[in-house]
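Fig. S4 source data, part A: sequence.
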Amino acid sequence: FFFFFFFFFKQKTAYEIGVRLVGSEMCIRDRYMGMASGDSSFKSFCYWFTTLLAWGSIAFIGIAHGVPLDKNAKTISVVALSICLLIYYITQFCSSSCSYLCNRSESANIYNYMERIFYTPMYKRMHIQCYHYEMRTSTYRDSNGNTQIRTEQVRVNTYSNYEHYYYLSWRDISGKFDLDLSGGMEQQERAFVKLHLKLFMRLAEDGTATDFEYQKASFIARNHRDLYYDFSETLVLDGHKEHILVKVTDYDPPCFSSFWFILFTLLTFAEFYKLHMDKYTIVQNFDIVKIVSSRFDLNAPQYIQEYITLTPCIVY
C-alpha cells in the first residue's frame, strides 16, 4: 500500500524532460482540449480508493467506539485509521483540482502570464543525495510490558548538492498559444478552462547532448561522497504554474471556489465536488518548450528561419 502511495506522489511531482530532437526532426507535440478533469484513470482510481478508505475509517471508528476492546487494541485501531484519513486529506489537497482552484486567473491576465513565460529561460537542474545505511538498536515495551530490543537498518543522508546544466543559448519553440473555445462554452455551460502547462527541454544538436552527459558525469564524480547516491534531474522555469484555472465567461458557477473544495474535502466528499467542477470546466493542454545549445547561438540570423514557425505567439 505504501509503495502505491509513494508511486502516486512520485508521478505528480516529477516534471517531464523531453527526449532530444536534432535539426529538422524538431516538432511540437499535439495540443488538445477535452471535457475530462485532467486526471488519469490511475489517479482517479487512487482518489476514489483513498475516499473509500476514509469512509471505512470513519465507519470503523464509530463502530469500534461502542465495542469493548482492550486499551492497546483500541489505540492501535484509532491510530491506524487516523493515518488512513490523513492519507486521504494529503492526496486531495495535493490533487490537480486543488491546484487549479488555488491558481485562478482571468483570460486577459493569462495572456500576459504566457508572454512572460515565453521570454523566461528554462534550466535543467541536477541534484545528488549521498547516503549510507546503519544498523540502529533501540528498546521498547511489548503488550505484556516486557522490555524488548529491536534492531533495524536505517538510511542516513550525509551530503546533498545541486547544479544547473550550462548552455550557451536558448529559444522558446512553444508555438502558438490561444484559448480556442470552438466547442461553444456557453452552450456547454463551461465558464472555466483548466490550463495544463507542461515543461519540455530540447537539445539542439548531438554536441549539446554530449556536453550535457559530460556535465552530468563530472557533477556526480565531484559530489559522490558516500557509499550510495540518488541522482535526479528537474526542469526549472521561474514563475511556472502547472495548473491554472482561467475564467473565460461572465457566468459565475455556484459554489465554485477553493473554500468549497476545502469544505467538501474535510467532509470526505471531495470526489463529488470534482464532478461539480467538471460540469463548468474544459481542459486545455499546452507544452512550454525551450530548445538549448551549448555550442551555437540559436538566436543568430542563420537560425531564425529554421525556428520561425515554432516562435511563440499569442492569439488574443
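Fig. S4 source data, part B ends here. The first strand starts at residue 33 and ends at 34.
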